[in-house]
Design brief:
about 160 residues; mainly alpha; 2 domains; 3-stranded antiparallel beta sheet
Length: about 160
Amino acid sequence: MKRYLALFIITLLFWLLITLSLSLANIITGIAAAGVTTLLFGRYFVRKVGKFLEPRRYAWLLAYIFVFLWECIKANFDVAYRVLHPAMPIKPGIVRVQLGIQSDLARTMLANSITMTPGTIAVDVVGDVMYVHWIYVSSEDPEVYSRKVSGRFEKYIEKIFE
């Protein structure tokens, strides 16, 4: 029951945040949308809702946002360099990244972060391994490329979601 209530509140707050309106019609519409969303997807929401009440997770989330933005900026310049360079120095390949995080939500966040970073795309997750397509495979050592691809995000995501 707690997770349904938590999902309802989060969905309603998200609705109010994206609409930026506190009119009665908007609040009623938000309550209806949050209710339908909760009824349809409540059983898939996280089981340990108490995690949402820990302030340190929000501090780690804020730090993660800055790390993610910095990595995206660096990756954008790297991809732009590779595209604009006359020789187009790319060495694409799919690498096998060993995951240290366990929860499905954390793995989803990691896969999305990798995919949203230019030059990498999360392809599949099988067990404790994520397969990632990388525009420039700079090392054949799994430990080195795992650290380059996911290590920058994984330590923050672990502190936020696990």
